[in-house]
């Protein structure tokens, strides 16, 4: 059963497969028939397309040629229109160009600039395509006219908007010197919204692009304005300086019209005249009695004149420094004004040219002040230090000037600063030479010489500028050699200390030389003692002893030793007087005539010398109260013991019938007269 079923199943599958084969054969026949039909159709289509292509291709070529012809015609028409515009531009723009630019608004100016651009374009066309054209001459003429009118309008607009800065404005700008907001260079600001400024920038930009940057106009207009600003400022400072001058104040006081002032002036003149006559007679009497030709004290008028000269030197230096500060402000103003008006590549040369006369003005003022200070140095005036205050201010302003001149180099300003420093260094040496050659004699009373006071004042003034003086002296070979081997934490302080040591050493030599004019050893010692103590105390008061100790560690001890030496020299001046108090040999119990005569001679000589010394030393001047009392005390200790001993010994000895003639002064009287020393001049 199972085999029969299996056979039946196989036969059924075979039958189905045979059926499928027959169907596939039928489908293949149909597909072959359809493929043949399709091939026939496609062949016919291909044949027809070939026929169509053969017919259409010539038409495409004709169409392309027609399109090219049309494009050429349009290009020709456009080119003709463009060229015709070049031929017509001079006629169309002649009236506008001849009328000149309207600078009232930026829009009106732009219309004019666009017309010039059209003329420039027409110029380029004819230069390239038809250089011999008559129309080119018309365009060139009209274009040049337009450019000239634009330059004239720019210069006129620049002139209208350029005014010299008033002195008060510059003073306000200098007062804001340390305000950081004014240090930045910014084109944007209040001027950037000004229609005139915008018009100038538009015109300048067009001229620069056309190769005709308005540097000449800027130089012609801005340079005189900058110079006039500084000249007016200088005159303003001079008028203020003249008004503040003590000489002018005294002159104004003398010219007051009220009767009280006139009366006071007359009385004062009479009193001054009488005082001068009395001093002259006293000087003549002293010279006749002593045989000395000693110079008098300096008069009040001379001292006042010197003080005025020093004050004038300081004011002149301050004015020159203020002028430099004003130049910095003017330079910054010119820099901001020029930005946007000329190409950056031309800005350095333009700024240098605009400020050239300003630099020359500043250089002449600095040179004048330095020359004045060098003259003051040659006469040993404290006003000579004013040039260092000027140099210090020039150095402080150097960074501001560099920023104000950027991108121009600060070479002119650097040259002015270097010249000022050169004069300052030379003034130092001239001051020392002035001390050496000073011919002013000491006062008749041996008081402090004006040279010592001037030296102290000068050193105090220099100490304020140690950071400027130090680097300047570091370039001098003599000071470099002197500093070799000295150790100091502050090089600048060392340089100043070396110079102060040089000044004080020369001062000491000069004072010693002046002391030789005195015939009296006591007055010579008093003169040197007064001056040395004055210098030492002045150095100590101003802290200059510490500065001097950098180069001379024993400066204070050395001065104290010198003071003691001069004290001893003064006390030694009593040796001649003391010799009269010492007997050549002991007195015998019974006096002989020779012994009596010896006592009379010694006492007479003592009295004569004592009276002369007392008369002279009452007029000696010892300004320092401590020194004055110390000298009185030392005088008593030197004179009273030997005189008292001799007085006591001779009080009971009968060596004359007139003892009061020889023992004229008791020890108490001697002590009282010693207490009166130095009081008249004190």
Automatic annotation (TrEMBL):
Exocyst complex subunit Exo70 C-terminal domain residues: 389-675
One Gene Ontology cellular component annotation held by this UniProt entry: exocyst
Keywords: Exocytosis, Protein transport, Transport
MF terms (GO), sorted A to Z: phosphatidylinositol-4,5-bisphosphate binding
GO biological process: exocytosis; protein transport
Function (record text): Component of the exocyst complex involved in the docking of exocytic vesicles with fusion sites on the plasma membrane.
UniProt similarity note: Belongs to the EXO70 family.
Record's protein name: Exocyst complex component 7
